Amino acid sequence: MEANSKQSEPMEDEEEYVLLDLDGVCGKFDIPTNTPYVLSGLETLNPVLVIGDNLKLIGEYEETIGTCFVFSESDADPVVHEETGPSETNLFTGKCIIDPNQVPAKQVKPIACLHKILKFRLSP
């Protein structure tokens, strides 16, 4: 009876992320920003990516070695130094100082991990 109760529980869909690798066609074609595209057949061995009206690419999955992580990068707030203390010689008491020579910092956050890369080539 336990087996029946386990079978009736709904299975959760597991999310899977795939990296679309366009290096094989990059530089060969000028693809304007915001060009419409259609990606179909992700569940097949050779998905198809159609960009605009005239560029058709065929994909092939490659397993990654280990796990690949995908990160997002954003600007981080600058480091602010605040001088405090009872010293009478401290001219900057209570003031915030930002170093003008400080290189802008970036904040990196992990988004997902992937196990497959989808490499595209020009359709024959």
Structure report:
The protein is mainly beta. The chain has one domain. The strands form two sheets. Strands 1-7-4-3-2 form a five-stranded mixed sheet, with no helix packed on it. A hairpin with a 3-residue loop joins strand 3 and strand 4. The longest helix is centred in the N-terminal third of the chain and has 7 residues. The termini are far apart.
Side-by-side strand order of the widest sheet: 1-7-4-3-2
Task: Describe the sheet with the most strands.
Answer: 5 strands, mixed
Give the class from helix and strand content and strand pairing.
mainly beta
> Termini separation (Å)?
55 Å
The counted number of beta strands is 7
How much helicity do the residues have? under 10%
Number of domains: 1
What is the tally of helical segments? 1
Characteristics of this structure?
1 helix; 124 residues; 5-stranded mixed β-sheet; mainly beta
What is the topological layout?
Blueprint: H1 2-8, E1 17-21, E2 37-40, E3 48-51, E4 55-75, E5 80-82, E6 96-98, E7 106-122
Parallel strand pairs: 1-7
Antiparallel strand pairs: 2-3, 3-4, 4-7, 5-6
Write a concise synopsis of the structure shown.
With 124 residues, this protein is mainly beta.
